[in-house]
């Protein structure tokens, strides 16, 4: 699967995409991925962990260029359907703002008739999102220091986004 942003992809009505300051809901994303034709729904929940490389983390801060990030989400769903035509639903929700340890930062869910396709599509979605979506993360450490983590999309564009 290849993601390109050369043309604008429109979201499908049965899919769900969001960027939000509000806490994300596993139940909501699961429900939005449900379909009577599904034999499987795979959900990936990304959370704020308490350390990075052994350094204690107290919070993460996310910022996004929302119009472009949503377009990346739409493209991911489109790419998934090009490689796996029987995908019924795709949901991608990402949180922005300051999040504490244990809070959910991203939810990806894919509903398909078969589990293997659902797993593969969900993995593709989160990996591609992390690589292509203009979403920035700042780590806040216990010692009071912080650092913006660069994203691959900025590196590809030859920009310093950190």
List keywords for this structure.
9 strands; 35% strand; five-stranded antiparallel sheet; single chain; alpha+beta; 4 helices
Question: How would you sum up this structure in a few lines?
Answer:
Helices cover 30% and strands 35% of the residues. It is α+β, with helices and mostly antiparallel strands.
Describe the structure.
The protein has 162 residues and is α+β, with helices and mostly antiparallel strands. It has helices spanning 26-33, 66-83, 115-132, 152-156, and strands spanning 16-20, 40-47, 51-52, 55-64, 89-95, 97-100, 104-112, 135-141, 146-149. The strands form two sheets. Strands 3, 4, 6, 8 and 9 form a five-stranded antiparallel beta sheet that branches. A four-stranded mixed beta sheet has the order 1-5-7-2, sandwiched between helices. Helix 2 (66-83) runs antiparallel to helix 3 (115-132). The protein is elongated, with a radius of gyration of 16 Å. The two termini are 28 Å apart.
